[in-house]
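REQUEST FORM: STRUCTURE PREDICTION
Request ID: SP-0412
Submitted by: Lab K.M.
Chain count: 1
Length (residues): 400
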Amino acid sequence: MRIIKTLLGIYVVLVFIGCQEKAIKSTESNTGEEDNSTITQEQIDHLGITDVEHLSAASKRALAWPTDLGNEWFLEFNQLEPLKGDLAYEEGVIRRDPSAMVKEDGKYYVWYSKGVGPTQGFDGDIENEKVFPWDRCDIWYATSTDGITWKEEGIAVARGEKGAYDDRSVFTVEIMKHEDMYYLTYQTVKSPYNKRVKNQIGLAWSTSPNGPWIKSKEPILSPADNGIWEGDDPNDRFSVKKKGDFDSHKVHDPCILPFKGKFYLYYKGEQMGEDITFGGRQIRHGVAIADNPKGPYVKSPYNPISNSGHEICVWPYNGGIASLITTDGPEKNTIQWAEDGVNFNIMASIPSPPHAIGLNRAVDSEKEPTEVLKWGLTHVYNSRDYQSIMRFTSRKKEKY
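STATUS: Completed
RESULT:
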């Protein structure tokens, strides 16, 4: 805990160079010269500093780090492994975005998006064709005794009837078990599926992982409504008069965790007029909080709670919440942790993590920081049109 608390201030000094002078012990004298008298020989030797009178910005940041960072948050991912049985790759079928796994009666359960057929994009017959691989999907589930060979059990949650908020597609699902109830939260799209469509988040619940599932009549979370489009072209998602909040266009990748007597719904936000920043999309995460699993959920005033990331991958650890941040933004490929579930700080930089991770929630997440990442599920693009679910494993990083 002492190490974690020590790290809480590192976030700013690692990312925002403009604050570096305030982050180190060295101070400016009245003459404008740096006072480096507090830098020890041990620090100089450990960091390989050549001349304390000429410190680069990188050396100043390094001097602000504690000397006992440790290695418990760091890991490396192994090569992905194909699954066997019904979840093996199948030409013409999309299986993607696996949920976390839960284990009941000796079997692992996983839920995922499933669809069929190629993707035509937005230039074809939008009313009858697919614009994305996750378009025209339903939520299916499968079971396994070993996490490798899977049996597909059938549909868990289907698309809604025409005119419903989820009539076009239901996808990117996550599972939460709480007090003998099971909750599936997922993305929804209503027809017509154009580039300006605003995704929402739905919820279904059951007393059994096998269902039947009762769907919420209305979304439990929607995008902010304070952005303003420029013009009326439904397939121009970059032209805006006002961008609005970080989630003014879409709310994606939902995951609910019980935390501190409440329910924290973590999600990915997409902004109208999305930009490219730090070589990736302008994607950030938010959280909405409720007293009951079914809501109502209220967005945190601290949103966005990340400046980076893509798919949501969160788990409880050491009284707080850990998050694997991937793909987009200046802090991509890091593991972060927040004692309060909101104010996240970088704990480790992780090379090449899998995408769309489905965690193994059957393990004890408190055993060590990355216990839930030892093995789980992910998806890969077998082609532009078709994706399949794979198994990932990881190992702790050792000294060379």
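NOTES: The first strand starts at residue 27 and ends at 28.
Reviewed by: T.R.
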